[in-house]
Specification:
Pfam families: GerE (PF00196), Response_reg (PF00072). InterPro entries: CheY-like_superfamily, NreC/VraR/RcsB-like_REC, Sig_transdc_resp-reg_receiver, Tscrpt_reg_LuxR_C, WalR-like. With 228 residues, the protein is α/β, with parallel strands linked by helices. 49% of the residues lie in helices and 13% in strands. It has two domains: 136 residues, Rossmann fold; 68 residues, Winged helix-like DNA-binding domain superfamily/Winged helix DNA-binding domain (Arc Repressor Mutant, subunit A, Orthogonal Bundle), CATH 1.10.10. It has a six-stranded parallel sheet with strand order 2-1-3-4-5-6, with helices on both faces. Strand 1, helix 1 and strand 2 form a beta-alpha-beta unit. The longest helix has 15 residues. The protein is globular.
Length: 228
């Protein structure tokens, strides 16, 4: 199945380079390019891409605001979608900046992944595939900093009342390991379970907590003091 990608960056040379890299993969089709956040929103609604590779610093509307408008849940109606077709694209934020506030804002806006522009071509292609498949992706350096910072902030915080309501003890174990950045295979090894069983537990966690993907699960776990 072809992954339809929209590229949003205010520099033409960057857009063209990303398009060339991604188009070299036979399963990826670059369907459009946007030079700012507003254009990205308009093109996303017109072209219905599966993944948007989104820069942060852009004129008219930045990538964080564009991500929130395309992926965020409208106030008062969590089930509704801002996209007329009812499909929300996945957003992979790609930037030269790895400042913590950008990471937090991107995740809060609904991004499924965050890569730095110094990532390799292979990492970029892999990142598009990962977020298109519904998983979360953070650059390793960002993951370490994110986890470390949340751990410092939440060290003495107890889990929020009701934060794990409905989760079984095993599902709670899985959620905590997701928050530590472990893959399904690594969680399976840690808990001595089959990988398919872990996938089932992950699905149950996301469904019970009304989370969109693993990225939201990571944020949820740290915000509710479940890890630290």
């Amino acid at each position: 199945m072809t992954i339809r990608v929209l590229i949003a960056d205010d520099q033409v040379m960057i857009r063209d380079g990303l398009a060339a890299l991604l188009s070299s993969d036979p399963e990826i089709e670059v369907v459009g390019q946007a030079g700012n956040g507003r254009e990205a929103v308009d093109l996303a609604r017109a072209l219905d891409p599966d993944v948007i590779v989104m820069d942060i610093r852009m004129p008219e509307m930045d990538g964080l605001a564009a991500t929130a408008e395309l992926v965020g849940e409208p106030a008062g109606d969590p089930a509704a979608s801002p996209d007329p077709a009812g499909q929300r694209p996945k957003v992979l934020v790609l930037t030269t900046f790895d400042l913590d506030e950008y990471v937090y804002e991107a995740l809060g806006a609904g991004a499924s992944g965050f890569l730095l522009k110094d990532a390799s071509a292979a990492d970029l292609v892999s990142g598009v595939r990962v977020v298109a498949g519904g998983d979360a992706l953070l650059a390793p350096s960002i993951t370490r900093r994110l986890i470390g910072d949340f751990a410092r902030r939440r060290r003495h915080q107890r889990p929020s009342p009701g934060a794990t309501a409905g989760l079984t003890p095993r599902e709670l174990d899985v959620l905590r390991l997701i928050a530590r950045g472990l893959s399904n295979a690594e969680i399976a090894a840690e808990l001595v379970l089959a990988e398919q069983t872990v996938k089932t537990h992950v699905g149950h966690v996301l469904t019970k907590l009304a989370l969109r993907d693993r990225t939201q699960a990571v944020v949820y776990a740290y915000e509710n003091g479940l890890v630290g």
